[in-house]
User: Fold these one by one.
Assistant:
Number 1:
Amino acid sequence: MTYFKAQKNMNKILFKNIKGLVQCGENINSLVGGVKMAQISTLKNAFLALENSEIVAYGPMEKWEDLADFDVIDAEGKYILPAFCDSHTHSIFAKTREEEFVDRIKGLSYEEIALKGGGILNSARALQGISEDILFEHSKIRIEKIINCGTGALEIKSGYGLNVEAELKMLRVINRLKQHFQIPIRATLLAAHAFPLEYKENHRGYIDLIINKIIPEVQKEQLADYIDVFCERNYFSVEEMEEILSAGINAGLKPKVHVNQFSSFGGIKKACEMKALTVDHLEEITDEDIRVLKNSKTLPVFLPGCSHFLSIPFSNARRFISENIPFALASDFNPGSTPCYNLSTIWSLACIKMKLTPEEALHALTINAAYAMGLQDSHGSISIGKKPGLILTKEIPSLAYIPYSFGENCIERVFI
Ligand code: NIG
Ligand code: FE
């Protein structure tokens, strides 16, 4: 399977006989919540014209004309969707961690493995020992696979460096990937992912290192778009998160945070006060958290791949729909808690485990996910002038067949 860059000989493409053109229209809100999530606008038996990746025309087949100079692709029996956006990944790492997976099968918990010096610290040891060039080459192959699964915009975090050089190395790799790929890639500084062993008893020392050394370097080299903190028991407290986010904001970074994965202790409230773009995870949630989110512009992002892989609770997405709070879905792709970057699989999990309908989950993977990366004006829907990237499915009986047939690859081609 290959994805097509809009190359010279293929910069004008006309799809005809499309069974369904999904999430298509000019009046799609940049954020969709509540009962509206159940309605996805789909044009049946349609055509679509793409010029230099930009959507320049679409409509019903009755109005189709054979545009000169366009390469025609017959999409009979197939659907076209805007590419997914993945607003939360840890796609840069030096090695996978299947030995911890086996340890968990045998009975250890994710938190127990981390307390033994495994987990994030395990990834950090490996990443500190690998060169920037090798990390870049490995990451390139991984990102190609991610794009082939239909991801048209990607956020990537640091956080496996945990010292000045290695955090910068990760961010430099992300910046090289930004240059290399045609999809938008956003870089997030997550030095506050865990306390390195040498700072286990000296949290102040590591926070000072982040604030006084790492953030200024990141600002100087313009290496990141966002600042993130893992706010959780045994990781960073609400006060520590506030201090680190403030320093990031002063350096021009927008906050987005990991909160409420295992416990709820005020991280959401603080993140909303600080105008975080997103609050991610939220497997644990209180009535107070809901009240705060209802009154803020901060977008919740749910990560069902992580819940599935760690056997922890799934976020209560249905409650957010009934409270009319929009949300996005993302993969959380990383070697420890979610070794899955395939957003079709995440779509299935959202339907099967979070009881979202296929249409509700698709909003959370397209337009709301674009919002979670500040890309709502160019991505997330099939609208004139947007360049969302496109997914062409195989011949399938219905749109719902994609999340239903979990594990099957329904994507024929991705156009970026
Ligand atoms: O989002 N929660 C913190 N960070 C990652 C896991 C990272 C790892 O285990 O390597 C997450 O699940
Ligand atoms: Fe994460």
Number 2:
Amino acid sequence: MKKITFVGIVCVALSSCGGKQNSETKAAADMNPQFEKYKSSFIEELWKTYPGWASSQGYHKYDSLLVVPDDASRVKELAFLKANLDSLKIVDLGGLSDNNKTDYYMIENQLKSIEWTINEEKIYQWNPSEYNVSGAFAEILNGNYDSLDVRLHNFYLKMANIPAFYEAAKKNIKNPTIEHTQLAIDQNLGGISVFEKDFVDALSKVNFGENEKKRMEYRANESVKAIRDFANWLKKLDNKTPRSFRLGKDLYAKKFEFDIQSGYTVDQIYEKALTHKNELHQKMFVLADKLWSKYMGKELKPNDTLALIRQVIDKISQKHLKPEEFQKDIERQIPILVDFIKQKDLIYIDPSKPLVVRKEPDYMAGVAGASISAPGPYDKGGNTYYNVGSLSGWNKEKSESYLREYNYYILQILNIHEAIPGHYTQLVYSNQSPSLIKSLFGNSAMIEGWAVYSERMMLENGYGNNEDEMWLMYYKWNLRSTCNTILDYSVHTKEMTKEAAMDLLMNQAFQQKTEAEGKWRRVNVTQVQLCCYFTGYTEIYDFREELKKQMSDKFNLKQFHEKFLSYGSSPVKYIKELMISEIDKK
Ligand code: ZN
Ligand code: ZN
């Protein structure tokens, strides 16, 4: 029975565009060469339309251009989107390889998503923080892809449109939200130093003539004036009916479809997150209860189960490293993770592409924690770095809170998530089926979902020796992504108050106050993004369990992982369809 259902799903998906039914019955002509050609010209057009996006991806041909976001440019943008959606309609999906099929779906989704953002979501009207030029200019100064002379000239040319840019922004903005207005003021004023300081410093390092330098400095001054003027305009804006920062049910559901591209609806995911949260609480209680006397001695147990869990967690969290030991310890742990995976035969790890652990570079300082920096799609030979935060300049209280959060146990789970077999391993696999489209439009739920899935998979296979402490801490960590989803959905579609949000994060997810406050600020200015972790994780985990049942003793975990990652950063629902259709063919 099950098998028939699967085949059904595959047929629907591959012939969803009208007129393609024939591709299932007769062998389709090879459309791949034609589609490859289309993709190259599409990306070239994409960069012409979005020069700022191009620069941020490491494509610098259009560095000197700044698009003025007025009505005329939106008309041009919509025409670009429509023309490409029309081009996609005539592609015969049946003649495409798996790699190109998923590319096709991702291009289509991206185009429709931008169209929707302009026509329906209208973010250009209510989110003033969309208008901020400093980041793109900072990147030109910091990048080392070209000589400083060339970069400064592009910087100068690009500045020409800054006054017009902010004039157009003022015309676009209507009833903005209070939160995004404040964010725009802060970020724009914060970015002024790029023109006032960084640019001036850089000018002192080149041999341009005095007149030329004067011209450049004059333009930088005009830019600073335009940015200040915009911030002041926002401060004084007569905004009697500000839009709510809450996206609302209909827009939220649609944005979830575009950004997450899940096989589940957002309501299904929300229900799953609620159930999962309760399951985690139950499991955590069993462990915390068992560990009570080890950590709390003869102290009386509280009646409230959540309070009991919290007290045990707080005690275990005191086992943590000193900040100066972080990098060394991460360097020590990476080969241990690799050995464990080899010994348990979980997934092949290419030894020729080592991960470089480093102290986080200065321009990233303050973000803290650990993160992966991968080379962009136009920088193929570049290293992949594991950036480790230094906590230098932090006060005692703040760094202690951070160290407890990233305690002895959580730090190991973080290494699994960020590095092996999480983000870094996924990246190595996705580079083996190179697709510029997937590097640019990679699905966040698949990427984050894989990292979150890999944490559980490692523990299931015995990483951490099945210690109760390790599992308890893992559950706490997993609660974070689970509650991110509950929070995001509840705030944007169910009017969740700040008070209720803080209760969820602090009392039900055991987070520190500063962490919870930060999350509240984040959910005020972003929408849907916080759902990607739990959604992707749930889809991958459910899919694995489904396959296990279907294949019974033919199921092989290592093969599952390698096959799953071979499709690159595509949405899980497409990977699932393609994997199942291949199994059915055997
Ligand atoms: Zn401590
Ligand atoms: Zn991640």
